[in-house]
Design goal:
The chain is α/β, with parallel strands linked by helices and 189 residues long. The chain contains nine helices and five strands. The chain has one domain: Rossmann fold (3-Layer(aba) Sandwich), CATH 3.40.50.300. The mean pLDDT is 87.
Length: 189
């Protein structure tokens, strides 16, 4: 099996996928694609929240199909970091990374990001840590259900990945360094 110059990044909600993918892409001189940003844009275009879109996707299979097609298209490129829950599944020859973070810590990171991320502000709303925790657990449950039904895949099963990085115990700079180092070893094998 030929390895591609593609890093797929999945992980816990609030685990730092976007920031990490940006940093890894910059460090390696790769492009970046985010299915989360793509999904947020779909929600905005439809005039609904991200959680509403996730719930709608449980019965409307075209939503996930649209996102999956964009991920697959990105996977046809080389030198790209793809931030997506299912990219590891669609692009099996990629270097597959999972960013791990407990939801109790993720909720604070998401609240902080809501203050500075315009796209997230428009597609997600929550004023308290409790609201965020409720929304991220609902979204995770919805995604797990959908992906299991649609593809027979559990995107939280860490056995699907080449590398698991704890983003609570490592800061962003350390996470990027770990991923770049392990990716270079993977490519050299």
């Amino acid at each position: 099996m030929q390895k591609n110059e593609i890093i797929t990044m999945a992980g816990a909600l609030g685990g730092g996928k976007s920031s990490t993918a940006d940093g890894v892409a910059k460090k390696l001189g790769f492009r970046r694609f985010s299915s989360g940003d793509f999904m947020r844009q779909i929600a905005l275009d439809m005039g609904m929240s991200l959680n509403e879109l996730s719930t709608m996707a449980e019965t409307d299979k075209t939503i996930d199909a649209k996102i999956d097609e964009e991920v697959k298209k990105a996977g046809e490129m080389e030198k790209i970091v793809i931030d997506s829950r299912l990219a590891f599944h669609w692009i099996p020859n990629s270097f597959k990374v999972y960013l791990d973070l407990p939801p109790e810590i993720a909720k604070q990171r998401i609240l902080n990001n809501l203050k500075v991320n315009a796209l997230r502000q428009q597609s997600e709303s929550a004023a308290t840590l409790e609201e965020i925790y409720k929304k991220i657990t609902e979204r995770l449950d919805s995604e797990k259900k959908r992906y299991k039904e649609l593809y027979g895949v559990d995107h939280t099963d860490k056995n699907n990945f080449d590398l698991i990085v704890d983003t609570d115990k490592n800061n962003l700079k350390q996470v990027i360094k770990i991923i770049v180092s392990e990716y270079k070893k993977w490519v050299a094998k």
